[in-house]
Amino acid sequence: MKLRSALTALALTLATGLAATQAIAQERFTLRLAETWGPNFPIFGDATKNMARMAEEMSDGRLRIRIDSANKHKAPFGIFDMVKAGQYDLGHSASYYWKGKVPNTLFFTSMPFGMTALEQYAWFYHGDGMALMQEVYEPHNMLSFPGGNTGIQMGGWFRKEINSLEDLQGLKMRIPGFAGEVFAEVGVNPTNIAPGELYTALERGTIDATEWVGPALDLRLGFQQIADYYYTGWHEPATELQFLVNKETWEELPDDLREILRIAMRTAAYDMLVHSMHENAGAWASITEEHPNIEVRTFPDEVIQAMFQANQKLLAEAAEGDELAKRIVDSQRQYLDNARAYTEISDRAYLNTMAELE
Ligand code: CA
Hints:
Layout: H1 2-25, E1 29-35, H2 44-58, E2 63-68, H3 70-73, H4 79-84, E3 90-93, H5 117-125, H6 129-137, E4 142-149, E5 156-158, E6 172-174, H7 177-185, E7 189-191, H8 198-203, E8 209-210, H9 215-221, E9 229-231, E10 240-246, H10 247-252, H11 255-285, H12 287-290, E11 295-297, H13 301-321, H14 323-355
Helix pairs in contact: 2-11, 6-14, 7-13, 9-11, 13-14
Residues 153, 211-213, 236, 239 line the site of calcium ion (CA).
């Protein structure tokens, strides 16, 4: 009798233990994500939707992600604070938007005269990029992951042609990140404006010029209706968006769901790069036919040289004042040097060879 009770007790304990294990294994999580973009924003918004869909499917429904766009949370530039405070579990935005709060966040989107998308992904995932980014975000109770790359961005829309440095003096331009600071050094008045308000700002003359992304997204916002000069890029050669994850949310997830989330973010990010290429190539194919007023230009040498000098000076200043900034700047410079030498003999050599066939 005694033995039987003991066995029953043991069986009960085992059954309870097993049930508990199953309960843990099947625990479901619904995470809330706030994005900077408006609802159904093409390409950027597709990256968050892809990520959420993959996470849910890979986890057999155990990890659900509910996305709130800017129309819902009303704080396109409040993502950092909301995820830090745990008001949202996840965010989708761009690291350089936070340079006014935490200056070292600006290095993780794209740097003027910096790495291309392929070089920068190599730095993030196989160089020191991820570890350095984590050092910047950890004190703010968050993790940051690459969130999708636009590829090289166009230099922006100008109502007047820029022929010299003189033409930039006092020009009011929407341009975020380090590039805004570089432009300020050569006489521009830089500002940042949320994507939803950009068209009106340019139309009403609140700004004289704006950069946004590239043909696929720029033409949808309609800048070609109010500005004729479309400049090629120098300032954001590989703009990487970001996924932010609240640290407690991350730690609460079981190992398998954490890995599923990591893979969903990484896959969605990389897919945004190829999606951007696809959409930009499509928009570019008919740009001159559909919008004959657009004049594509490259900034004159004088302007590019001045911006390059300003960039070098500002990078040196940033590195001087802050030990972590110095390590990030050094890491990016060294990685760029190494990777670029290979890009020269591979991609550039191939493109040069192709160019000579015509
Ligand atoms: Ca941009």
